[in-house]
From TrEMBL, chains A, B:
Origin: domain of life: Bacteria
Domain CoA-binding: 22-117
Lineage: Bacteria, Pseudomonadati, Pseudomonadota, Alphaproteobacteria, Sneathiellales
Pfam families: ATP-grasp_5 (PF13549), CoA_binding_2 (PF13380), Succ_CoA_lig (PF13607)
Protein name (record): Succinyl-CoA synthetase subunit alpha
Keyword Acetylation appears in the UniProt entry: no
Cross-referenced SMART domains: CoA_binding
GO BP, one annotated term: tricarboxylic acid cycle
Source organism of the structure: Oceanibacterium hippocampi
Molecular function via GO: ATP binding
UniProt keyword terms in alphabetical order: Tricarboxylic acid cycle
Length: 716, 716
């Protein structure tokens, strides 16, 4: 076995060290400082003081000597110390000049609050491109423009004018948020707090001329207080950096939950009309998140609900979930949800069911467990029932629906002692309680380590997400491939290669291909048939070879089922004559003769170059699956065989590979190996490969084979 | 044209008049009355008094003369007046005796609170069957046992012991809830109130030995205060009555939202283990709801969120929705949600876009409309922007995401005047506002006719549901078929019919079939070929005919591509000999000769008998679509051609009928007619038809044809 290597997709681009001065500054200057604590130039000073920021604050305003109780400086240059971070809170027209002053001072990071750039059209784009150039030249990390800044709840650096931070947060939490939109981040801060989330960091990136979502994500991945990362993004311009950040978060075992807008065609059209960022093909983006173990949320509520669970819940060691309920019907509703989300509603062992029946004679004991209303009148019985489930059923997760009990004057106060007792005996289980809550009981339950929900199905959804994270963190890095790619020398010219050359490249990439023989005359066709016949006595096919003829059959360029040398020679003459007649003037590179394929299931595997994420491998079954139903799976190259297996399993059609429809099961391992090999090749030659289509790639019970291929190259 | 008739599926079974005494009693007796207002026999008296019930209350308790300030009666018999409703709140063992007393009194309705029946196993089933028999004999409508009763908020008849009603409701609302589970109903009452719902009726059915979900649904459909109906159900034992109730609600244009548990196999297994009701095949249940315009919710939150929107929102005249947002990104998120849910995100007309740019220079103007943060500082501009969208864009629905503004001290108070102004100019539009709200502003906005949401995607989901209801109410009753079914005389015997007889029945049902000719000898086969040849010169097929041989091809019983009279005769002898050899001893009814089919798309249409809903028609495309992907649609018979078209459109494969994959578009009208005809036949012969499989039913550009069929009959 070769040594495991990680193929770098592009040079590493995230420079974490340089973000420190920006997000953990020891001193902050505010250019355009205001004495009015309600103004954009006054709020950050107000917040920094209020949050107990432990660094130096330098208000810069030439018309004042004192601002909000601090000495005001006439200019950044006048500050008699080094400054880590400059906040630029002046009108757009004055930002360029301010940034030049920052550069001259040697300050290594700046936030531009000011709006009036790319969001206002082409002139604004030019203006912000100029800012980016100044920043690059001076080595300044720039946040914004048109952003709401950030709040670091660990050191009190609330460098923002966001109105919703008014209420603050009295200690550092464990959830980091990074948002491209300030409006979303403002909304989300409050939604998150309402959901019981305490933030560690709250970052907005705005127009992202330098520091972007990938930087923010990587910073949060490395931040010691941040346990869970929430992301809101509208586009992704640099897929490699985004993937680097996702990989870093996964390596640190930090759950990442992402809302990305623009999934449908309507949505994507609107994104490109209002931001400059590339939205990327959504199914590819989706695949990237899956590949790197992130969770994609489809609503604001889901983002914060999953974030809440990940911040407060234990990641379960298995998918085994116990569902307990005081209402049998709701237990069933939750079982449906759990099944839909791939959790394992393993039935209780028979002795455990018997023990439960002993306690609650008419309980539903299988799983879901219906503890019935009987336990409401006897919380000790409730406790003992839960103990049977957890102890004898050995579930890693448990969700319990308690109806309205949390609000009941009579029963509400008994809930906390019940669950504290359960928790004491099972400190390591993931326990979720769904009921309507009195806020005080709710908080106490959370402090005792339980996840609490009002909507019972959301409890199940959240536990499924926790399992998703555990599973993702537990597996090997799928992008660390185990064999070096073997760089090939490819033709220099751009454009499609003919079938023979394409098959040769595919074969050199390690993918089994049909043994095609190039022939230039009827005589050579005869000889080729003889070789094929000698090797196994199969029938043969003869095809015209031309990079200019994608639809060979329509042009009469294919002859199937050749049984003899004579037929082979005649087929050559016939096919060449027919092509010359039906497609006059096209360049023909002779023909090929190949054995007819063994029967197998026809799949389509290929590569295309995503503008954001580079080479992306696709898999699908031939026929209606890929073409009509778009039942295909994507992965960003490179990836290993295990990742390829997950990719195959994602398609609905994969049931057919396992022998549905009465057919034989085929060798999925060979198929997975071919996908992994193709991904490694595409990754190694990312600059040259425009696309590869292997269609069909025929997979049988013990072998597989590329029957046709088109490789399209980019110029050197 | 024949006159439109409605085919009764079964005799009408819902007797609304008899429910009046139960749900709108003029007098209530409580058997097992308690002086303790916290006990099961005391709570209903407490509630009836507290809710200002306007009828007579008779506590029955032989050990007391006065209960909660009312005269107590020693027995029901002693009450010197007729009693509409008897509440039985005694232990299970005493219920039978109590019910006999109710019967003797001539009281026509009773509620049995008591638990301890079917939920406790076989003995309990026997016990409650006995109660049902007593009730039937005496003409008593029975609610329960093991139910929480009901609350009628119109007349103060709160005949329940549900603890959560403690807080009450000071006037009658417009949302009716009917729930099989008391625990769910208790939970749901509070979830609904929290969501801003005011209830008209709150009904629980428990073990449903008589009054069931269908009765409750029908009662709510007829109830004048109820505008929207929410249903929680665990099973459905009588599909015809449930459909009757759904149809009644639709006829009254009342939106119905349903949570039904037990969708997955795991869920369904748990349902049948804890209730006696039949869960029904879930895809059929799903089809029934779609067919009758009800909305299926997948969580408790969704049930009440859609219920809230239907209770307070206008049903939109079209699917056109405007999405406006102060955050471009969230606008895109909402556009995604709207597209997924089938709404029409029609772009703004170009002049409207220009007008909007005039107002807000850097707005995103297409749709979603990004009004940008500029409008936050100028609510008049906000108002004028919304006016451009609604007036010039002509949308029936508008959703507006306002971020955190609802909570802002500065901007929050301006929200209400803004929307009041919009509402004044557009009283008929469906307007939804999504933001974080101060509760007072929220309530004022609702009172001004707006729908309010915290989660913006839920606003879109709710508007899509309103459109779903509008569309459903606007169309003709799909079960009112336009041609009489033409009753056929069917063989008396049970079991499968052979292909010839099956095709004959299918043809008599009005469905085009291949012209198969029965042949009993080589000579007859020759003659049959001659007839076919004379009619069009097509090749022919010869097949053995046997009801005992489902797999004809495997037994060598089929010969395709017959070109001459001689071949036809030889084929007969050959096929008969082969079948005799390969399948010795089976009964053979000769053979058939038929023309080979014209090329077409192979579909599968069929009927099966659902245990709950009776004859159900299925449609799917042949091949992997139906067999592997289960991409099939169901409808309960009978239905009309328009409903059949909706059924076809539900399958993903329907794109192929319209000409995907480069094939010609086929005549979907003929296919829809065949499905409607099949449904009419199946409905008319519901007692005799076990199943019908027409596979394939080949559909071409101008014609369609059943090529093979198996009809299975039930005995007379």
């Amino acid at each position: 076995m070769n040594e495991t290597i990680s193929l770098p997709r592009t040079p590493k681009a995230i420079d974490l060290a340089s973000l420190d001065a920006l997000f953990r500054p020891r001193s902050v200057a505010v250019i355009g400082a205001s004495a009015n604590a309600g103004k954009i130039g006054g709020l950050p000073i107000h917040y920094l003081k209020r949050a107990g920021y432990d660094g130096d604050i330098y208000p810069i305003n030439p018309r004042r000597t004192e601002i909000q109780g601090l000495k005001s400086w006439p200019s950044l240059a006048a500050v008699p110390a080094a400054v880590d971070l400059a906040v630029i809170a002046v009108p757009a027209a004055q930002v360029r000049e301010a940034l030049l002053v920052v550069a001259a001072k040697g300050t290594k990071s700046a936030i531009i609050f000011s709006a009036g750039f790319a969001e206002l059209g082409a002139d604004g784009v030019r203006l912000q491109d100029e800012l980016a150039a100044i920043g690059r030249k001076a080595g300044i990390r720039l946040l914004g423009p048109n952003c709401s800044g950030y709040a670091n709840f660990a050191n009190g650096a609330w460098v923002t004018f966001a109105p919703l931070l008014e209420e603050g947060q009295d200690s550092v939490g464990n959830v980091g948020l990074v948002s491209q939109s300030g409006a979303f981040a403002n909304f989300g801060y409050r939604v998150g707090r309402n959901r019981g989330i305490r933030f560690s960091q709250w970052l907005t990136t705005g127009n992202t001329i330098d520091v972007d979502i990938a930087d923010g994500l990587a910073f949060l991945a490395a931040d010691e207080n941040t346990k869970v990362i929430l992301v809101y993004m509208e586009g992704c311009a640099d897929g490699a950096r985004f993937i680097e950040a996702l990989a870093l978060a996964r390596a640190r075992r930090k759950p990442v939950v992402v809302v990305k807008v623009g999934t449908t065609e309507a949505g994507a059209a609107a994104v490109s009309s209002h931001t400059a960022a590339l939205a990327g093909e959504d199914s590819v983006f989706d695949a990237v998140l899956r590949q790197y173990g992130a969770y994609r949320a489809r609503s604001v509520e889901e983002l914060f609900d999953i974030g809440y669970a990940a911040a407060n819940g234990t990641l379960p060691n298995s998918a085994k979930i116990a569902i307990t309920s005081i209402s049998g019907g709701v237990g069933v509703l939750l079982a449906d949800e759990a099944a839909t989300r791939g959790l394992d509603i393993a039935p209780m062992p028979e002795p455990a069911q018997a023990a439960l029946r002993e306690l609650v004679p008419f309980a539903g004991t299988r799983n879901p467990v219906d503890v019935t209303a009987q336990v409401i009148n006897d919380f000790d019985l409730f406790d003992r029932s839960l103990e049977v489930v957890l102890q004898q059923g050995d579930y890693d997760m448990l969700v319990c629906f308690m109806g309205y009990l949390g609000l009941s004057k009579e029963y509400g106060p008994r809930i906390l002692p019940l669950w504290e007792s359960v928790r004491r005996r099972h400190p390591e289980r993931t326990l979720a309680v769904a009921t309507l809550f009195d806020p005080a009981i709710r908080q106490a339950l959370e402090e005792a380590g339980h996840l609490v929900f009002e909507e019972p199905t959301h409890a199940v959804r959240a536990l499924a997400a926790l399992r998703h994270f555990a599973e993702s963190f537990g597996r090997a890095d799928g992008a660390a491939v185990s064999r070096p790619p073997g760089l090939l020398s490819l033709p220099a010219e751009a454009g499609p290669l003919n079938e023979l050359d394409s098959l040769a490249i595919v074969q050199a990439a390690g993918i089994p291909t049909i043994g095609a023989i190039a022939v230039g005359s009827a005589e050579e066709a005869t000889q080729a048939f003889r070789r094929i016949d000698a090797e196994g006595g199969r029938r043969a096919v003869l095809k015209v070879v031309s990079r200019e003829l994608p639809h060979k059959s329509e042009a009469g360029g294919v002859r199937l089922g050749i049984c003899s040398e004579e037929e082979a020679g005649a087929a050559y003459s016939e096919v060449m004559a027919r092509v010359a007649q039906r497609a006059p003037g096209i360049a023909v590179d002779g023909a090929l003769v190949a054995p007819m394929a063994e029967p197998g299931i026809e799949t389509i595997i290929g590569v295309h170059r995503d503008p954001v994420f580079g080479p992306v491998v696709m898999f699908g079954l031939g026929g209606v699956f890929a073409e009509v139903l778009r039942d295909v799976a994507f992965r960003v190259a490179p990836f290993d065989v295990a990742e390829a297996r997950r990719m195959i399993a994602e398609t609905k059609a994969s049931a057919i590979l396992a022998g549905a429809r009465g057919g034989p099961a085929v060798d999925v391992g060979i198929l997975a190996q071919a996908l992994a090999d193709l991904s490694r090749f595409a990754s190694a030659h990312a600059e040259r490969v425009e696309s590869i289509d292997i269609n069909p790639f025929s997979v049988g019970p013990t072998a597989a084979c590329a029957l046709d291929a088109v490789v399209v190259l980019r110029g050197e």
